[in-house]
What does this fold into?
Amino acid sequence: MRSGVAISTHSLGAYFQLGFGRSPDACFEALCGATVVRYGLELDYRFRPGEFVSPWVGVGLGYQFATAQLVSDDGERLAGSRQRRGFDLGHANAGLDLRLNRTLSVGPYVSTSLGRYRKTDSVDIPGDSRRFHVWIQPGVRMQLHF
It folds into this structure.
């Protein structure tokens, strides 16, 4: 979800993203579920605002946290969880908006971001153990114009 103010070709706003996942490989062959939350500020540039087809690019930065929940072998109970938190050091977006009418546009986008977790649960991760990670996210965005 994103909320912002558009002035001509530029828009500045805040974003909030929530993602869910489940993968046996990511948890060393145990079942696990994962939740990722990202939020921050974003600046977009629209090349042809108000036109039916309007390509755009954007940049931003923010904060993120991911929680992995381990499930017991029988799949019945929660065996534990671990949360990592840190900064979204920067992300870049690109997409294409198709203006369906005066108030609604939809279109595909792709986003990539670079992050670095600083804490696991409530414990600081030592500087030499902090690893960078990358998120690549394709999707469809919808905008309401007021």
User: Anything to note?
Assistant: The chain has a mean pLDDT of 82. DSSP finds no helices and eight strands in the chain. The first strand starts at residue 2 and ends at 7. The two ends are 16 Å apart (CA to CA).
